[in-house]
Amino acid sequence: MLFIQTDTKIQEKVAKILVQYFNDIQLHTIVFPYSQNLKQIAKDILKIKHNISEDLGNTISINKVIREIIPLRTWDELLLHIGTCIRTKSAKDIEIFFESIIQLQALIPPDYEKQIKPYTKNLFGKYYESDTLTAFIFFLHSWIAESTDEFLKMEFKYLPFLGKKAQITYLKLKGKSVLPFLSTPTHEPFYVHPKILLERVLQHEKNNETIDLEDLIVACNRIIVSELKNDFSKSLKQIKGEYSNALCYLFGVSDQINFTNDTLPLWTQISRIKYPNGIFTIFEKSKASNYPSVVNPFQIRFEIEKNITYNGIYKLILDDNWNYYWYNNNKPIRHETIFYNTASADKASRIDIDNQMSLNPNYIDTLLCRYIPDTSSGNEVAGFEECLYPMKFILENQISINHSGWLYVAVCLLFEKKISRDLASEYIHLSISRNENLDILAEMLGTLINERYAPVNRLIEYFDKPTNIKEIKLFQFDVLANCIRNFDMKNLPINSKKILQYYKEFQVALDMENTNEIMEKLLEFNN
Fold first, then answer.
1. Distance of CA 202 to CAs 191, 196, 210, 241, Å?
2. 26 or 291, which is more confident
3. Category of 124 on φ-ψ map: left (φ > 0), alpha (ψ -120 to 50) or beta
4. Which of 334, 323, 403, 303 is nearest to 369 (CA)?
């Protein structure tokens, strides 16, 4: 059991004792269960060969199953679903409720108020910080009381789209409209199938109903990208609205960007979803030319600052005060919320975070960076939530990161709460299993460690997680190399010797050679 300890000296002493009393075959039997934990010096003493594996089988499964959401069919199902919405507080469940009540209007019984009272009697008359609950409960109250004055004038800081959807649902009921929302999820957990999106668009055009641009944008944000490879040209030819060119571009029928002032928010969104690494100079002449991620991929600059006012804590400062910290003199740049890639809605509370992120899952980098805490230690509740709920969201839903979103993952891996570090570690291994390029993450971790944003020991904890998978070890080796490459010999981080120790151990295990740059740093360090 002592081999579970990550201390090199303990493992060395245990290994020396074991070789005195057991032969090679016995040693193999005794040590094998702990082989992934062994330090190099213990392996050498025990004469154990390197056990780096090419197999990624132990990592998280990358086969993400996107199941179809079964629509509600009856009034009883709709009634029960009210309880589901209150319990889960999920935007998906609430949006399904809004969609279903529109489609099932003919089945609403005359005594519906009496039937839903058991669900609502303890909800009304209270203040809810969550936009999710506020939108849902105010809709129910207005539907029952048939009073809209306050509800239709309400503004929602964290989830303006869900609030708007609740208000439109009420108006649809009053006008007896059964036309669907474009953005209601069709597949778990919150995605929209391309085929159903086109069917909904055509249904609106057939009824001469104006399509709400934001509803269309969110629907495109939620599109199942893997399904866009199918041929939808027949349906696309039937679409006549001013958004038709944008849909043809998203669906791969056209490669020409042809925007107007009205359709600009849609074009800036779908172009980034379609080509995450694209550079779109065509938008340089638009009013959105300086909006984040419109022309170029989202690359946020950052620096580490030591503030002696706060007990020597090192603070992470993002360009334009992107993560909204009160002490920063720069006011955060805010744009129209309909430009979703600018992440202009307010940072949400824990209940609303998942729901907010579900509105733009195919390019989440900009929103993730809003939730980066400024310190890795000494955080209060808000900081703990910021490094927990978004991290949990991208891991559970296997959301891909493209650019500066990796800074959020780097911060979580070095954060003071272990649960955030563990989630970040799992997400990194998921990304490795998907063959994603993590060079930018390795560079960011090296910078954060060298600038003392977080203690070295938190990074070492990640290296100590048992694994013998080569791809993971190669990434970890790359992180260590970035740390050493950027060492300031006059201002080394505390415990920098551990970085050298692990680098040398991984180097032997992986049979890697030093670069000239690393060699110079190692010589300088030893002198």
1. 19, 10, 11, 10
2. 291
3. beta
4. 323
Backbone angles phi, psi at 305, to 5 degrees: -125, 135
Structure tokens at 290: 């300086």
Whether cis (ω within 30° of 0) applies to the bond prior to 455 is no
* Residues 86-134: tens digit of each pLDDT: 899 998 999 999 999 999 999 999 999 899 888 887 777 666 778 998 8
Alpha-carbon separation of residue 233 from 186, 203, 219, 238 (angstroms): 21, 17, 18, 9
The H-assigned helical ranges of 146-193 are 160-175
Distance between CA atoms of residues 288 and 285, nearest Å: 8
CA distance 7 to 15: 12
Reference 315, options 374, 372, 383; nearest CA is: 374
Please tell me the distance from the alpha carbon of residue 47 to that of residue 49, in angstroms, as a whole number: 6
Give the Cα separation of 61 and 335 in Å (integer): 38
Asked if residue 181 lies in contact with residue 63, where contact means CB atoms within 8 angstroms, the answer is no
Tell me the CA end-to-end span of the chain in Å, nearest whole number: 38
Q: What is the per-residue DSSP string for 311-357?
A: TTEEEEEEGGGTT--TT-SSPPP---TTSGGG--SPPPPHHHHHHHH
How many C-beta neighbours within 10 Å does residue 500 have? Answer: 17
Average pLDDT value over all residues in the chain: 87
Mean pLDDT of all residues in 463-492? 91
Structure tokens at 365: 């980098």
- Using one digit for the tens of pLDDT, what is the confidence trace for 53-70? 555 544 444 456 679 999
State pTM to two decimals. Answer: 0.88
User: 516 burial class (0-12, 13-18, 19+ CB within 10 angstroms)?
Assistant: exposed
Structure tokens at 9: 């000296």
> Are 453 and 410 a contacting pair, CB within 8 Å?
no
CA distance 355 to 133: 11
Number of neighbours of residue 151 by Cβ within 10 angstroms: 19
Q: Following CA atoms 441, 447, 451, 457 in sequence, which dihedral angle do they give, to the nearest 10 degrees?
A: 50
Cite the beta strand spans of 50-92 per DSSP E.
none
Contacts 24+ apart (CB under 8 A), 8-14: 8/39, 8/41, 8/42, 8/501, 11/38, 11/39, 11/41, 11/42, 12/39, 12/41, 12/42, 12/45, 14/42
User: Which tokens sit at 53?
Assistant: 């594996």
Distance CA 294, CA 11 (A): 53
Strand (E) or helix (H) holding 316: strand 313-318
